[in-house]
Design goal:
This protein folds into three domains: 77-375, Catalase core domain (Catalase HpII,  Chain A, domain 1, Beta Barrel); 447-527, Catalase, four-helical domain (Hemocyanin, N-terminal domain); 538-688, Rossmann fold (3-Layer(aba) Sandwich). The protein is built from 16 helices and 19 strands. It has helices spanning 7-13, 53-63, 159-166, 182-190, 195-202, 249-258, 262-272, 327-332, 351-367, 448-455, 459-474, 479-490, 494-504, 549-561, 617-628, 677-688, and strands at residues 76-85, 105-113, 128-136, 139-146, 216-217, 222-225, 231-240, 278-287, 313-322, 345-346, 538-542, 565-570, 575-577, 583-585, 588-589, 600-603, 633-636, 660-663, 666-669. The chain is globular. It starts with 6 loop residues before the first helix and ends in a 12-residue tail after the last helix. Bound molecules: CIS-heme D hydroxychlorin gamma-spirolactone 17R, 18S. Residues 70-73, 76, 110, 112, 129, 131, 144-146, 151, 156, 159, 219, 301, 334, 336, 352, 355-356, 359-360, 363 line the site of CIS-heme D hydroxychlorin gamma-spirolactone 17R, 18S.
Length: 700
């Protein structure tokens, strides 16, 4: 009998296709096929015959291989894993999967970008989806979140407008995987409720280093309901164990070409290597009686509850430990739905959430071709399913017996769940109102929280936000749209607006009233560095013949012991000969990779006085890019000489020799021989910091 944690995996086994090696090739009807390379034809050079049923079946099946991609979040990557609570949450919710720390609930998570099609690049500036399906003992619960805690609009009726505006423009289908175009910014400039999410979009949160290193948020205020029927408002947060880390924009753009699969490859490789990504689930809890205790509306999805006001309480952890076996069957066919809830979790009247509760089921019906998509292996609950729903496209079960309720002929089955049998009961919220089409006045403040976000940023984060606005608006053709957007920014922060205005050629807006100076330090990436480890960081060591072998070995051993992944990059694949005359394997040829695919670079020394990589333009470019993107750079022995290439970039090398010098994440030691413990400690600390922002900003 499978343990509860394996119940989903055990269920999947039953759906595994027969091993094709176990018998001959057949048609879909099971008829053996002796030849699949030539069509049946009337003579060697004659026309293909209609009666070639194998040919027609093979081509037809191929022609029908595609299903429509998701209208948003088309590109994604997924993985299986488990969730376990730290302690019982019974005080707030009766949800069975949040009661017992010894019970692991299987999960499937799909991460995604939003704007681009299925084949677009990973490292675009965009929101990332973070959707989790919990296969609980009480049925499936889907927490369909994003890596931003706020959304662009307040009411779901505007979703088609927003998505039309951000998607490629209708006449030429441009741009792919990008928001820097007229229609999005036209919409933004006319719809200031977008501003808070737009601030996040212009920040480094929109270019995560890894899916494993980003937060997730449920966005809406949901409701926990306990066994007594008492409700508590709840906001969900996923916090990554490895900390939150981002790319820089210049790097993200180059990465789109160097490795369009950068984020999905990273997730896949980490899981294959046993480096299972992990998040802590946290909740912000607000008692029902405090519904109106905030200066914003809890039902407004463009607002956060600052963590300083209501702390995030950790309630459990999620680990992803298994890659899917078939992308289409699992990651593509997984169907999330915000209305997939279990007893103890309920909705609020957030008008965005209400709309989602309609849209997700509707979208699966068209995308997956009918109502039976919950029978697909990835969507199938591990809880038993019994009802009178029948037939429809792709029904794969053979039901017997009665199909209506009430019945006596079927023994009255399936019967209603009796009291105490764990049935879902909706929270008995009192609702009373006139039918109106009007936004609540409590939803009208569109500037205070964008200002709080801006005020909470470190200087380098502000700098990146300004550059992002300049990039995006700089690609907008309509100057009126640029100017109108900047006018809104002036109501967020005067300095922000002035700096953006200068970059995009519109008049600096006259002083506008800005909201106070509220700050939430938890919003800055500075406060989200994680556990300080360097696990799974990718470190490039640039090597060539004559390289100081002792140095490489000492660095490799230490970094590997810390859980980092070290790769030796040489001008060509194969092996190199070290200074000790031994041969060493090369992991990759430099021309096939680039600095943007690594987190840090190390330059070991070579024969005395000959910087081994100095002559190789690929190596020089590699180090220069790493430096410009704020990455840690280590250099040992004569390898330090290569760093002179960075002087035009603003690096001023210390003239002190024979000792370890650390400056802005550049760690050098000109001593020959193996790397000293002091050097290694400093290099590891520089890698743990991820990026070093005191360096001159990236200029093309
Ligand atoms: Fe979605 N969204 N959304 N969304 N969304 C979809 O469902 C929709 C919203 C999110 O990996 C679609 O299966 C409406 C907020 C994720 O499969 C669709 C509204 C948040 C995913 C849909 C929103 C999200 C989707 C497209 C406004 C964060 C990918 C295909 C009322 C809290 C799930 C599909 C996956 C996908 C509709 C707003 C997150 C069309 C109408 C807010 C992570 O149903």
């Amino acid at each position: 009998m499978a343990s509860p944690a394996d119940r989903k995996q055990a269920q999947r086994e039953a759906f595994r296709a027969d091993d094709p090696a176990a018998g001959p090739l057949t048609t879909d009807q099971g008829v053996a096929v002796d030849h699949t390379d030539d069509s049946l034809a009337a003579g060697e050079r004659g026309p293909t015959l209609m009666e070639d049923f194998h040919f027609r079946e093979k081509l037809t099946r191929f022609d029908h291989e595609r299903i429509p991609e998701r209208v948003v979040h088309a590109r994604g990557a997924g993985a299986y894993g488990y969730f376990e609570p730290y302690e019982s949450c019974a005080e707030f919710t009766r949800a069975a999967f949040l009661q017992d720390p010894s019970v692991r609930t299987p999960v499937f998570v799909r991460f995604s970008t939003v704007q681009g099609p299925k084949g677009s690049a990973d490292t675009v500036r965009d929101v990332r989806g973070f959707a989790t399906k919990f296969y609980t003992s009480e049925g499936n619960y889907d927490l369909v979140g994003n890596n931003f805690p706020v959304f662009f609009i307040q009411d779901g009726i505007k979703f088609p407008d927003f998505v039309h505006a951000v998607k490629p423009e209708p006449h030429n289908d441009i741009p792919t995987g990008a928001s820097a175009h007229d229609t999005l910014w036209d919409f933004v400039s006319l719809q200031p409720e977008t501003l808070h999410a737009i601030m996040w979009l212009m920040s480094d949160r929109a270019i995560p280093r890894s899916y494993r290193m980003m937060q997730g948020f449920g966005v809406h205020t949901f409701r926990f309901v306990n066994a007594e029927g008492r409700g508590t408002f709840v906001k969900f947060h996923w916090k990554p164990r490895l900390g939150v880390h981002s790319l820089v924009w210049d790097e993200a753009q180059e990465c789109q070409g160097r490795d369009p699969d950068f984020n999905r490859r990273d997730l896949w490789d980490a899981i294959e290597a046993g480096e299972y990504p992990e998040w802590e689930l946290g909740v912000q809890l607000v008692p029902e009686e405090d519904e109106f205790a905030f200066d914003f509306d809890l039902l407004d999805p463009t607002k956060i509850i600052p963590e300083e006001q209501v702390p995030v309480r950790p309630i459990g952890r999620m680990v992803l430990d298994r890659n899917p076996e078939n992308f289409f069957a699992e990651t593509e066919q997984v169907a999330f739905h915000t209305a997939n809830v279990v007893p103890g979790i309920d909705f609020t009247n957030d008008p965005l959430l209400q709309a989602r509760n309609f849209s997700y089921l509707d979208t699966q019906l068209i995308r997956l071709g009918g109502p039976n998509f919950s029978q697909l292996p990835v969507n199938r609950p591990v809880a038993p399913v019994r009802n009178n729903q029948r037939d429809g496209y792709h029904q794969s079960a053979i039901h017997s017996g009665t199909n209506y309720f009430p019945n006596s002929l079927g023994g009255g089955c399936p019967a209603h769940a009796g009291a105490g049998a764990g049935a879902y009961t909706h929270y008995a919220e009192r609702v009373d109102g006139h039918k109106i089409r009007r936004r609540s006045p409590s939803f009208q403040d569109h500037y205070s929280q964008p200002a709080m976000f801006w005020n909470s940023m470190a200087d380098w984060e502000k700098q990146h936000i300004v550059e992002a606005f300049r990039f995006e608006l700089g690609k907008v053709g309509a100057m009126t749209v640029r100017a109108r957007t900047v006018e809104h920014l002036a109501r967020v922060d005067g300095e922000l607006a002035a700096q953006v205005a200068r970059g995009v050629g519109v008049p600096p807006p006259a002083g506008a009233e800005t909201p106070g100076k509220q700050v939430s330090p938890a919003l800055s990436l500075e406060s989200l560095r994680g556990d300080g480890s360097i696990r799974t960081r990718q470190i490039a060591v640039l090597v060539t013949d004559g390289v100081d072998a002792e140095q490489i070995t000492s660095v490799r051993e230490r970094l590997a012991a810390e859980g980092a992944i070290v790769e030796a990059l040489a001008p060509a694949d194969g092996t190199i000969t070290g200074s000790d005359g031994e041969t060493y394997a090369v992991d990759r040829a430099l021309p096939t990779v680039a600095s943007v695919l690594y987190d840090a670079v190390l330059l070991p020394g070579g024969p005395v006085g000959t910087p081994p990589t100095a002559a190789d333009p690929d190596a020089v470019r590699f180090v220069r890019d790493a430096f410009r993107h704020g990455k840690p750079v280590g250099a040992l022995g004569s390898g330090v000489g290569v760093l002179s290439a960075l002087e035009p970039e603003g690096l001023h090398l210390s003239t002190e020799f024979q000792r370890v010098v650390t400056d802005q994440g550049v760690v050098t030691d000109t001593s020959p021989g193996p790397a000293s413990a002091e050097f290694l400690d400093a290099f590891v600390a520089a890698i743990a910091a991820h990026r070093h922002w005191g360096r001159p900003p990236v200029r093309r």
